[in-house]
Specification:
about 10% strand; five-stranded antiparallel sheet; globular; about 45% helix; Beta-lactamase; alpha+beta; single chain; 2 domains
Length: about 300
């Protein structure tokens, strides 16, 4: 694809004309205050170039996109033994549902629903204190993005903690089935801070390259781990809209209720899009539409 910047410019203009932009997440106060009129997109290429459109330099809370980075650390630390902690099947339920935990003895269906992400954080911590693990996680994200200016938004983390009763219910239910190794409050504190990592599209697209691979891309994530993580993003990365995203976009991706979406185009690019208004499934409305348009214009779907 020779004119990627032209594709991004076209997408940016199209998204600027959209009137139905979804609704921002209201249950986390700092996210509820974000201007829904914003849209940004970035494509990071293995040759070092990063192409952008719109508000690609505006920072946002990556929220559940952080689960991809934590999963990578958990797999690196535990290898295939990690799968005794979490399943790898789509849930077909809302991201914060407790229903399947009740039916499946506290074993989360996959690492990207909230219960599975909490269990993944617990496994990745490996009995380390939260500050130690969060420093390790930030170091990994900064290395992937090749940018030290990435931090945790403490105000968002505090708000997550104040409004996190449902996540507490999920964690204590798993703990009652002996599914967690660390104290529940330490796991939850770590999880809330992990979700509060603050990045922009340019940084996130560069970090996504670690999962896309390609010539010259630093080998921060092994090929075997990329295969596992990309397959899970394809199957489970957008909760109960994952099938629709695969159908429309055909690329592995992970969304967050902050309005961001990380996408890996295997061997080609890392992609990030952000627009804070969400659709009914909790994924960025304009972000999903933009990636659908991008996949159509570039032909980059893994399904041809």
């Amino acid at each position: 694809m020779s004119d990627l910047q032209g594709v991004l410019d076209r997408i940016g203009l199209t998204m600027a004309e959209r009137t139905d932009r979804g609704r921002v997440a209201s249950y986390i106060p700092p996210l509820a205050r974000v201007d829904p009129m914003q849209f940004g997109m970035a494509v990071a290429l293995p040759d070092g170039r990063t192409l952008t459109t719109g508000n690609a330099a505006t920072g946002f809370s990556i929220q559940s996109i952080s689960k991809v980075f934590t999963l990578s650390l958990a797999l690196g630390r535990l290898g295939e033994g990690f799968w005794s902690h979490v399943g790898r099947e789509p849930s077909g339920q809302a991201f914060n549902s407790i229903l399947q935990l009740e039916h499946e003895a506290g074993l989360p269906r996959n690492p990207f629903i909230n219960a599975g992400a909490i269990a993944t954080t617990d496994a990745a911590m490996a009995n380390h204190e939260p500050k130690v693990f969060l420093a390790e996680l930030l170091s990994f994200v900064r290395a992937a993005a090749e940018d030290e200016d990435i931090h945790i938004d403490q105000a968002v983390a505090d708000s997550e903690k104040a409004t996190g009763d449902l996540n507490r219910a999920l964690a204590f239910f798993m703990a009652s089935h002996d599914r967690l190794s660390n104290p529940v409050e330490k796991v939850l504190g770590t999880y809330f801070h992990q979700c509060a990592i603050h990045m922009n599209c340019r940084q996130l697209a560069r970090a996504a390259l670690a999962f896309a691979g390609g010539p010259g891309v630093p080998n921060l994530v092994s090929e075997a781990r990329r295969k596992r993580i990309n397959s899970l993003m394809m199957l489970c990365g957008h909760y109960d809209a994952s099938g629709d995203f695969a159908f429309r976009v055909g690329l592995p991706g992970k969304s967050g209720v902050g309005g961001g979406i990380l996408v890996a185009a295997p061997g080609r690019a890392g992609i990030a899009v952000w627009s804070p208004g969400l659709n009914a499934q909790g994924n960025s409305k304009l972000g999903t539409e933009a990636l659908d348009m991008f996949a159509t214009l570039t032909g980059w779907s893994v399904f041809g």
